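for the recovery benchmark. tokens below, seq after
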């Protein structure tokens, strides 16, 4: 059954494909970006009644190639940091920390084929996320490694544009697929079971302001929001001849960030 989000994906994708044929003879212009990012991170798993909150530091690089009506961007973003972990259960509440490492490699295709005011885009990314929850006297700790692909479609719209300054907003829907989760349960004699969490819809958006010092160099300041979620997953594991079911409940993650970027056109 088709959902409304499916029609949004298809509509934006069709606009981008329609613009490709108009760019074969356009003059290219390339851009290199390097960015520092400060992010507020929050992860919730209601099934386990756990919550992780804290700050992550980010570093990203991107390079883009632009023709008249199309622009392609390859990006690599890295985040890392230790956040607070808390769990509430019928037993004693647990408080410890989690080491977070997140890597995102993406390709984004943008088009202004129909309108100069807005640009539809489609973004495809591969993501890896490492969560290492530290143990203490009340909790044995656990390590989780996620891998997944993500597709996002949305709109970028200009709010203000002059010769040196440009302010724009962007927003899009995302959807995960090929989700994989590796859980280290060796302390429980369950090995490292591989689970496949169900795909879910997410969101990404932000506001961006940039300033050109000259035709080649400039800076950019942006505020961004990302939200993704995984559905539940389970797998049967053989534990010394006894079959045990390993379950991973649905989870939700939010990343709010401020990003400072230096860019160079060439």
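predicted aa per position
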């Amino acid at each position: 059954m088709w959902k409304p989000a499916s029609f949004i994906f298809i509509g934006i994708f069709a606009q981008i494909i329609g613009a490709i044929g108009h760019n074969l003879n356009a003059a290219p212009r390339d851009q290199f970006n390097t960015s520092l990012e400060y992010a507020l991170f929050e992860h919730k798993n209601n099934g386990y009644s756990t919550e992780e909150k804290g700050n992550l530091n980010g570093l990203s690089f991107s390079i883009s190639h632009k023709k008249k009506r199309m622009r392609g961007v390859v990006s690599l973003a890295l985040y890392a940091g230790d956040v607070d972990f808390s769990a509430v259960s019928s037993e004693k509440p647990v408080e410890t920390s989690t080491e977070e490492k997140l890597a995102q490699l993406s390709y984004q295709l943008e088009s202004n084929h129909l309108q100069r005011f807005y640009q539809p885009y489609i973004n495809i990314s591969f993501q890896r996320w490492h969560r290492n929850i530290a143990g203490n006297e009340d909790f044995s700790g656990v390590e989780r490694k996620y891998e997944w692909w993500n597709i996002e479609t949305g709109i970028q719209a200009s709010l203000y544009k002059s010769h040196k300054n440009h302010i724009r907003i962007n927003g899009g829907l995302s959807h995960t697929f090929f989700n994989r989760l590796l859980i280290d349960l060796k302390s429980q004699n369950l090995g490292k079971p591989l689970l496949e969490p169900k795909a879910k819809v997410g969101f990404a958006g932000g506001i961006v302001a940039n300033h050109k010092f000259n035709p080649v160099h400039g800076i950019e300041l942006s505020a961004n929001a990302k939200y993704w979620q995984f559905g539940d997953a389970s797998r049967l594991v053989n534990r010394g001849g006894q079959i045990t079911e390993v379950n991973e409940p649905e989870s939700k993650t939010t990343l709010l960030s401020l990003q400072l970027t230096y860019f160079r056109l060439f």
